[in-house]
Structure of Inner membrane lipoprotein YiaD:
Amino acid sequence: MTRARTSLTLLTATSLLAVTACTDPGAMGPNDPNRQTKQGALLGGILGAGVGALTSDDKGKGAVIGGLAGAATGAIAGSFLDQQEADLRRQLENDRIGIRNTGDRLIVTMPQDILFAVDSSTVNSALRGDLLTVANSLKEYPQSRVQVIGHTDNTGSAAYNQGLSERRANAVSDVLMSGGVSFNRIESFGRGEDQPVASNLTEEGRAQNRRVEIVILPTS
């Protein structure tokens, strides 16, 4: 590593002490309702400090300013996710619907076994209410874009599974749009059998892989 790069690294790390002083990663427990706000501030601060140090003539000052700006932006995005996650958990009463907050996005996972009949891309009428609840949440929190992603197991041909995953993702997107979510906010696509989350060697694993994910990505 060159002397300039070493100095830049030290400046960035030093500046982050100010950014992270009130955001202790050890204090962000799994039951902390504001954990993603804090994590967003921390990650935003790290990224902002690095960018600020790289783009400013005064490396130390640039890192501090960039870190503080990044922390503020990250905290806002994290706060939106914390609030929306809490609201969705309260409003959705189906314990088979998963909600995962990763810090930079909210992932709502619906098993295809409850969304669709076998080999169908018509949304189960009993699940439309849950999808409309998600749509209402998206309208209440408009500072995001949405990806609807279909997944299948590996039963059948890869080409057929790809098409089925696309049709099912489109069907879920259509319900969200019927619930008032703007077409411009939604991107719909299928992954077929390419992104399993469990083994396709067991029925339980294949059931986990058959899913539609609604990924909520903050835009501010």
